[in-house]
Amino acid sequence: MNLFKRSNPSAAKPSSEPKVEPIHVTDADFDEVILKSELPAVVDLWADWCGPCHMIAPSVQQLAEAYQGRAVVAKLNVDENPNVPGRYGIMGIPTLLYFKNGKEVDRQVGVTSYANLARKLENLLS
User: Fold this and answer.
1) Peptide bond into 94 cis (omega under 30)
2) What pLDDT score does 16 carry?
3) Whether 50 is catalytic
4) Which one of 31, 35, 116, 117 has the largest count of C-beta atoms within 10 Å of its C-beta?
């Protein structure tokens, strides 16, 4: 008898809900997906080698889930897509750019909490 095993019937069932992921954008489709979006958008500029980028990734994932259908949440790899970071003068990552009506209206540089990211996005929805 295993005294440490706990029975949790709900944990055994796989979720029927598909996991919502941030959209991956590139230099080629950035304008179409982000700037022409009718919804507010937030873009996480990141790189695979960047430790702080990995630290903020769960918060970006959470934004994608929480704001599905109300905002575009996207990620752009700066190593693979250098034009967009150059256009927006990105000097460090992670940087999150916030857009409304095709214009950058806010940005967050460095790691911060989900609450701070969501607050900035909420401001675009009001």
Assistant:
1) yes
2) 55
3) yes
4) 117
Catalytic residue among 23, 39, 47, 50: 50
- List the domain boundaries for the chain: 19-125
Catalytic residue among 25, 34, 42, 53: 53
Has domain 19-125 been given CATH number 3.40.30.10? yes
Closest alpha carbon to 60 in 87, 93, 86: 93
pLDDT of residue 18: 66
pLDDT along the chain (126 residues), means of 10: 42 58 97 97 98 97 96 98 98 97 97 96 92
DSSP 88-118: TT--SSSEEEEEETTEEEEEEES---HHHHH
